[in-house]
Amino acid sequence: MATEIVKACKTCSLINEGDVCTACGGATSREWQGYIIILDHTKSEIARKMGIQSNGKFALRVR
Fold first, then answer.
1. Could you tell me the pTM of the whole model?
2. Strand, helix or coil at 31?
3. What is the DSSP letter of 37?
4. Could you give the 3-state DSSP secondary structure of residue 50?
5. Residues β-bridged to residue 33
6. 3-state SS of the chain: helix, strand, coil percent to 5?
7. With left for phi above 0 and alpha for psi between -120 and 50, is residue 32 left, alpha or beta?
8. For residue 36, how many other CB atoms are within 10 A of its CB?
9. pLDDT tens for residues 6-59?
10. Beta bridge partners of 61
11. pLDDT score, position 3
């Protein structure tokens, strides 16, 4: 049973499984650390500081 490797976008940090980001079309990387789930980006102080403009699962650091 093979599982898909989870990757994070180098541009917007969105976590997804493909080689191309589903949100911005940027390249993804297998090298990322930590993650945060944003439920309401309009009220989230962390989302504002990270520049996140949508809800979802995001990596804290992407290489």
1. 0.87
2. coil
3. E
4. helix
5. 61
6. 10, 40, 50
7. beta
8. 16
9. 999 999 999 999 999 999 999 999 999 999 999 999 999 999 999 999 999 999
10. 33
11. 77
| Type of residue found at 54 | S
Nearest residue to 13 via CA among 48, 63, 58: 58
Side-chain-side CA neighbours of 13 within 13 Å: the count stands at 21
DSSP string, 8-62: EETTT-BEESSSB-TTT--BEES-EEEEEEES-TTT-HHHHHHT--S-EEEEEEE
Neighbours of 43 (CB within 10 A): 9
Give the pLDDT band (50/70/90) at residue 4: confident
pLDDT at residue 1 above 70? no
Separation between Cα atoms, residue 4 and residue 46, nearest integer Å: 28
Q: What is the pLDDT of residue 36?
A: 97
